[in-house]
Amino acid sequence: MSTSFEARLAAWYAANARDLPWRQPGTGAWSVMVSEFMLQQTPVARVLPAYHEWLRRWPAPAALAAATPADAVRQWGRLGYPRRAIRLHEAAQVMVRRYGGEVPGTLADLRALPGVGSYTAAAVASFAFGQRHPVLDTNVRRVLARLVGGHEQPAGSTASVAETELARSLLPPAESNRAARWSVALMELGALVCTSARPACGQCPVAADCAWRGTGSPAGSPARRQQRYQGSDRQARGAILAALRTAEGPVTKAAIDTAWPDPAQRARALAALTADRLIEDLPDGRIALPGDT
Q: For residue 170, what pLDDT is reported?
């Protein structure tokens, strides 16, 4: 993309970006990492209060590492996908053991932490350390699919090698220190303007360059229907975890039966929670959050 394209996007971002705490100047790497864990599959509005409370309780990796996994799951509350709390706790312990209680600053070291995939590693390296890496979340993938590829939606559920290389080729040069701003501006454009269902092309600062708009904005494949939550196995897992969080200690299997009455679904939920290391079966037959004995 041209310098003028980058300038238009940067000007739009400066005028329209949301005031989010993890974007503030001087925000530390740990705060950025916590935000990236929480923002996975969870809207910003739900993350904000949880983010502040988490950092108030555990302002550094060492503080979280000293807590129990059960503490992390309880603090995670109802953000959803609570295995993220377990992985973040494990990552904090690794940071204490290997990196002196600090978030590591290289892509390879970040990628080796529990719960840190290619996206999260690139996001932390870019936004916390100012490095030049392609950051491809759902919003960025959609913006680039439309802007460059001429497609309404990106192909597949995860970024391909071709998408990653395209994103890398569009990054401003390393010596300019503009790559992180470019990535977060694309992300914000996808979140606020180039949305999945109703893109506001009239408000887009780079609409004139958009390949998808230039071909008449053709519809692509229909969006995948999200699984209904009500009555799902995911709801059953959430109900069981809620009972354990409220109890603040191990509970009997009778209490778990009360939390979710369907025996077959309850058994599936318990098996999944055990596999994710979110619950433990105690020798006396009770069930507990990990480390909550």
A: 93
